[in-house]
Inverse folding.
């Protein structure tokens, strides 16, 4: 028997009916704030709202320089009162799981259910007629119940080891990163393609501003892995709706702790006939064998139970019927499973830290100006991709496999793509944890990223006597000047003036890897204090300097003539 | 990425561009004053007032801008620097020239360049966006994609055989070059003839594969400004083209119809890198001269010097 959906909806409480639109609204808000982040609207909108709400981000901001604890604290207090309401109504990732994931949907009305006919069941996508018989809950293995505790343990250990990798599991930075390295680059590519196709038409119509509009292409470094991770999290819903939220989400696990004591929640009236339908439909597995009780650590207030209850015994109100603490903690949890999961997770964290690339700093990892010292940076960066999103030249890209797993998703410069714009300090302005410091422009211009090194054997001015000097042209600090050697103008790098901005590397006409490249050597990374002072102490002067015309080598810059 | 589709599109839209190729002859035209001596006018004073006098001396803007024509103004807006740095053209001058063109009956004015850096930043920080705001039929264009350029084959050139030229230039009747007077590491100075590199797509090959000076000469056989006005209000005398470097307040505009002669006069106006250069010492100007594109001998140029009267 099939009953129309509209009649099913008629039986839902207004709160349940509002849940979908609320989720959509928050998802749109999340996306719009992400878009607005790089627009002139940025100062006017709370573009970091969702990340500021995230207690995990606040937790790892301990290593950064921005500590926005108020909203995150409010989240925990809110969970103390209303449980995991956030997960069911606000979380944009939860919305995607609900939207794309397979759902168990009840298609009968409560009124009909009370009559002689049993309520109709529909399982999507495999809706079968025999499911109309008595609902049978297929319980997931009990050892899974302990996984949230293992996730929290790994998170704690990550914190202790100064390894921000566990934040990869945090749904809010995850989704933000997905937008930054997958959705946004793809959208820019598509937009530029369309603008290109439209160009002759725009010119004919006199819309020249449109004809000459193009957006700088963001790279999708780490995009495929991000997408795979997302698909994996989504795919887990095949085992149970909201499998992710139930077992693996560290934010959910964390909110579950105060939620355990929440006052507002699911309450079951004595009229309950113990039919167990609620336990079957609950996407979170929050209803134990005794259906009058609720695992408040899990309940996301989706009200699926309320919808299927044939006797309308379920309400959401103050005075929730919670599962006794001891039972919830111990009866359902296999300690061995928890220990194994936590142990394996921790070992993995340790191994990423022991990566030779991390220990020896052997890779060319160029961090954005104002990035705090690397050990703190790797802990404070939640890989949300905000800096990648706002970077106007797109020199900032997510680190892929090359920097080791510990650095995956963190921002690195791709100077060959573009140099770092010296009049821009946006990456520090949007960083939610202050892993990149919010610096005034003058300070930021003294935040040395690295040092350019010129390979004379590849440089066309040195090796082929070409009149090139593009690097000299592009250098905003005149750290590259020319000198006349053997009758030819040739560029030289003055390391004591180099900011490491990479403009030289970006413009070098040598094919493939340029002849002038920025290396992290000489980078200045400060957690506090002035970069200008630090540079003065290192005798680095980022001030104007002049090229000199001369006919012999002595007239070139004296400190680089060697 | 989307290069293939765009290239296909370009091929498909070649038909559209055939009429656009007609103005080639316009750009190639060479004007000279009576007796074959090019006239260059130099006016000291604030950009707007100096422009007034300069245009009057050259016969009025109407001499260049015909009613209903499309004009391309080519200022330097290559870097996200304010005009005080003397690395980009003064937006006040650009606005004044654009207004003049509209007053003369221009149907459309492009203000276009191919910036070296982020286009939106360059348009904002140079002050160009603000300067062009509110002017109807003035289109501020910062090119950033290959599809905004059109390949053109050149004949009789030494280094440059084919060049991708800004589509807006090919769609214009007239080019007015408004470069900032500044030094340039590779080419000593960057004035009008060098500034034409802002109207093409692939500049790296000029440096990496060709003889830069000769390539600029070749380029100028195709792109020729009907009017060049050097912005000498402030001059970056070393450290160019991006700076930072010493800025000299020259406070003048230098203009004329012979782009090479205008540049030649400009070269003599300042000490570059602490040294006086003769125009013939500047490689790309010599290359332009060799190609018969204009005069570089200051003795064979009629220099008219004017002063904005104190108000």
């Amino acid at each position: 028997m099939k009953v129309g959906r509209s009649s099913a909806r008629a039986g839902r409480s207004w709160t349940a009916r509002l849940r979908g639109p609320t989720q959509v609204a928050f998802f749109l808000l999340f996306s719009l704030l992400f878009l607005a982040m790089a627009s002139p609207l940025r100062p006017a909108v709370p573009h970091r709202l969702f990340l500021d709400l995230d207690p995990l981000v606040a937790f790892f901001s301990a290593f950064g320089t921005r500590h926005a604890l108020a909203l995150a604290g409010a989240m925990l207090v809110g969970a103390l009162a209303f449980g995991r309401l956030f997960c069911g109504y606000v979380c944009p990732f939860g919305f995607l799981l609900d939207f794309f994931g397979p759902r168990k949907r009840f298609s009968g009305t409560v009124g009909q259910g009370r009559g002689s006919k049993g309520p109709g069941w529909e399982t999507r996508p495999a809706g079968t007629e025999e499911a109309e018989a008595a609902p049978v809950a297929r319980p997931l293995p009990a050892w899974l119940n302990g996984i949230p505790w293992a996730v929290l343990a790994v998170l704690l250990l990550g914190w202790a080891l100064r390894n921000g990798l566990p934040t990869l599991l945090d749904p809010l930075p995850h989704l933000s990163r997905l937008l930054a390295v997958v959705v946004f680059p793809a959208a820019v590519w598509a937009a530029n393609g369309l603008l290109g196709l439209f160009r002759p038409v725009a010119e004919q119509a006199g819309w020249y501003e449109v004809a000459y509009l193009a957006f700088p292409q963001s790279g999708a470094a780490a995009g495929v892995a991000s997408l795979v991770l997302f698909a994996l999290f989504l795919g887990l819903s095949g085992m149970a709706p909201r499998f992710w939220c139930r077992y693996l989400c560290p934010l959910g696990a964390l909110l579950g702790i105060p939620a355990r004591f929440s006052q507002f929640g699911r309450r079951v009236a004595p009229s309950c006939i113990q039919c167990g339908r609620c336990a079957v439909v609950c996407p979170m597995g929050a209803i134990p064998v005794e259906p009058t009780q609720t695992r408040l650590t899990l309940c996301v207030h989706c009200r699926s139970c309320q919808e299927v209850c044939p006797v309308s015994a379920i309400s959401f109100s103050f005075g929730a019927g919670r599962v006794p603490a001891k039972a919830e903690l111990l009866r359902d949890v296999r300690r061995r499973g928890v220990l194994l999961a936590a142990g394996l997770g921790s070992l993995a964290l340790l191994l990423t830290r022991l990566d030779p690339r991390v220990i020896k700093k052997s890779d060319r990892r160029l961090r954005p100006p104002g990035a705090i010292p690397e050990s703190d940076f790797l802990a404070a960066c939640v890989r949300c991709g905000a800096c990648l999103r706002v970077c106007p030249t797109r020199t900032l890209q997510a680190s892929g496999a090359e920097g080791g797993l510990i650095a995956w998703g963190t921002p690195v410069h791709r100077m060959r793509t573009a140099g770092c714009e010296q009049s821009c300090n946006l990456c520090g302005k949007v960083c939610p944890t202050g892993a990149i410091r919010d610096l005034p422009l003058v300070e930021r211009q003294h935040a040395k990223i690295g040092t350019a090194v010129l390979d004379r054997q590849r440089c066309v001015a040195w090796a082929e006597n070409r009149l090139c000097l593009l690097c000299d042209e592009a250098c905003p600090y005149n750290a590259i000047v020319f000198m006349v050697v053997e009758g030819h103008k040739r560029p030289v790098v003055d390391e004591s003036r180099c900011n490491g901005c990479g403009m030289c590397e970006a413009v070098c006409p040598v094919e493939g890897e340029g002849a002038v490249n920025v290396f992290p050597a000489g980078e200045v990374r400060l957690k506090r204090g002035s970069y200008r002072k630090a540079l003065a102490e290192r005798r680095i002067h980022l001030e104007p300097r002049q090229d000199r015309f001369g006919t012999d080598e002595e007239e070139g810059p004296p400190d680089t003539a060697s | 990425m989307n290069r293939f589709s765009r290239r296909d599109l370009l091929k498909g839209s070649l038909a559209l561009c055939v009429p656009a190729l007609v103005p080639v002859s316009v750009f190639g035209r060479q004007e000279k004053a009576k007796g074959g001596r090019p006239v260059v006018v130099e006016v000291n004073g604030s950009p707007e007032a100096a422009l007034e006098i300069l245009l009057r001396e050259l016969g009025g803007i109407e001499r260049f801008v015909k009613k209903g024509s499309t004009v391309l103004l080519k200022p330097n807006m290559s870097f996200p620097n304010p005009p005080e740095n003397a690395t980009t053209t003064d937006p006040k001058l650009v606005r004044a020239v654009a207004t003049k063109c509209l007053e003369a009956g221009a149907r459309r004015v492009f203000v276009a360049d191919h910036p070296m850096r982020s286009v939106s930043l360059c348009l904002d920080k140079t002050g160009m966006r603000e300067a062009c705001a509110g002017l109807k039929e003035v289109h501020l264009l910062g090119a950033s994609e290959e599809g905004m350029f059109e390949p053109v084959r050149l004949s009789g050139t030494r280094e440059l055989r084919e060049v991708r030229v800004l589509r807006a230039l090919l769609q214009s009747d007239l080019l007015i070059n408004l470069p900032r007077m500044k030094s340039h590491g590779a080419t000593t100075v960057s004035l009008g003839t060098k500034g034409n590199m802002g109207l093409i797509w692939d500049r790296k090959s000029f440096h990496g594969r060709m003889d830069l000076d000769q390539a600029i000469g070749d380029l100028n056989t195709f792109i020729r400004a009907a009017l060049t006005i050097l912005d000498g209000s402030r001059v970056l005398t070393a450290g160019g083209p991006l700076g930072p470097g010493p800025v000299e307040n020259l406070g003048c505009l230098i203009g004329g119809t012979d782009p090479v002669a205008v540049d030649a006069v400009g070269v003599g106006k300042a000490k570059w890198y602490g040294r006086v250069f003769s125009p013939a010492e500047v490689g790309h100007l010599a290359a332009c001269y060799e190609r018969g594109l204009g005069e570089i001998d200051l003795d064979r140029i009629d220099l008219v010097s004017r002063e904005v009267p104190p108000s």
Q: What stands out?
A: Chain B touches chain A through 57 residues (CB under 8 Å). The first helix of chain B runs from residue 3 to 12. The longest strand of chain B covers residues 227-236. Residues 15-26, 28-34 of chain B have pLDDT under 50 and may be disordered.
